[in-house]
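Pilot study result, target chain (253 residues):
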Amino acid sequence: MTQTIDLNADLGEMPESEDRDIAILDIVSSCNIACGGHAGSKDSMATMLAAAKARGVAAGAHPSYPDRANFGRQSIDMTPDALADSIVQQLTAYAEAARDAGHAVHHVKPHGALYNDMADDTDLAMAVAHACAQVFPGAALVGLAGSAVRDAAQAAGLPFIAEAFVDRRYTPDARLLSRSEPGAVLADSLERANQAVALATGAAIEASDGSALTIRADSLCLHSDSEAALESASAIRAALEQANLTIRPAAGT
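Predicted structure:
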């Protein structure tokens, strides 16, 4: 059984949700801060980094395809070089904000469509991993558990953090069910908490076709823009602690 687990959330994506994001920081052990590709600004990065530092929460950059209009949730056909340039630009902005806040850069976690595309596109994963290594050579790369991102991180000399989602339904092949499909997002806090404990302890979860699926993960993500995210975060942390799990940032492998 896993004795420790990281609980993370994507933050700094919506100005109107700043108070909720800061409240979530009282619960999670790490966070991923939007750095301009799909959302986020210099001010939001500064606010989230300061709040994370004050609470001892590990913080990382959350880059995306450069697509604010679609919140980074649509794939974009970009050359590897063009994508790498965009990632470097976003990470450089985050590096400046982190330096100003005096908070270490713990990891990089791609967002949305980019995150999903990297899972099975080796060339894309390699381009992003090497861009991350260029800006943050010591930071871990977060990616979908059981995906191509692990090998890309290793090739770029980066630690890898395998991630799973407490609020998303999986396909039988351990990929996230498209948000366009019914039931893709788990809406009930208890259901999210139960999935979190199963993922953290190596137990099976139910895939979209009803089959049993086991995923090994170092970190569990709760989307901060999901309905009742704050209430779910509290329920999830309580359930993990009740299962005798220690919640702390993942080191990567």
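One observation from the pilot: The radius of gyration is 17 Å. A full batch analysis is planned for the follow-on phase.
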